[in-house]
User: What shape does this take?
Amino acid sequence: MLVGVLALQGDFREHLFALAECGVAAIAVKNLDEINAIDALILPGGESTTIAKLARTFGLFDRISARIHDGLPTYGSCAGMILLADRIEGAMEGQESFGGIDMTVRRNAFGRQVDSFESDLSMVGITAPPVRAIFIRAPWVDSLGAGVEVLASVEIDGQLHPVAVRQGNLLATSFHPEITGDNRVHRYFIESVCKAVVA
Ligand code: GLN
Assistant: This one.
């Protein structure tokens, strides 16, 4: 299995490092040949508006979106979560997403509505101890369709906000496991979403 990390902008190197630590073959993806060659995709943290614009500029947008909608296992962290959302609240004018997950995400919920912060989360599919979650101008999920499973939430002012979700082959987290040195979310993606066996 070959995992591609979209390498147009953002923290793709950290994802490549986490995948290498998991013992998975991984490449930085920047062109159509690479997009066509991969068996799974990671959309990194960064700036969702910039990543979407660059994907358009380089002629990659429609092919990435088509592969995601055709069932390519895909994981998006933070900006990557926004790119996987069917609907964006607080989008820049004309901001596009690849879509795939039937949800509305609120951009910059952490960092505008509430401060960016770190927290320990329990997450469905990942055994204890809790996952250290770092939220940096991150989205949360405002609403979701019946086919979307919530894997983790944070409680703010008595209200629960989903921050890790899965719909079939698509996984998204508001936070950045790639910058914590804890590879359990990447392992969950590889083993449970991609159904690949790794060392
Ligand atoms: N605020 C960014 C966006 O809207 C996401 C931030 C991040 O990936 N840490 O794309």
